[in-house]
Amino acid sequence: MDAPVGMEAVITALTSALSADKFFGVVAQVIPWLGIMVPVALGIYFLRKLIKGAGKGKVRF
């Protein structure tokens, strides 16, 4: 059997490199960052909204 060429080679490389264990291993490494970044992003969003309204006298809590 000949070695795959072109798109077949790409698909073969992807299917051999990706597996559920490897994929969820990467996801498990990303989850702690998401747990930190989401509250920080929301905090910055609400802080900017609060500061924007302060100049117009529309500060709300």
Give a description of the structure.
The protein is 75% helix and 0% strand. The protein is mainly alpha-helical and 61 residues long. The longest helix has 35 residues, at 20-54. The chain is elongated and about 75 Å long. The relative contact order is 0.06.
Summarize the biggest pleated sheet.
none
Shape: elongated
Distance between the termini: 70 Å
Order of helices and strands: HH
How many β-strand runs?
0
Structural class: mainly alpha
The proportion of residues forming helix, as a percent range, comes to over 70%
Radius of gyration in whole Å, from Cα?
23 Å
The proportion of strand residues reads under 5%
- Helix tally? 2
- Poorly predicted segments: none
Overall pLDDT confidence? 84
What attributes characterize this protein structure?
0% strand, mainly alpha, 61 residues, 2 helices, 75% helix, elongated, single chain
Summarize the structure.
This protein is an all-alpha fold.
Give the SSE map:
Layout lengths: L6 H11 L2 H35 L7
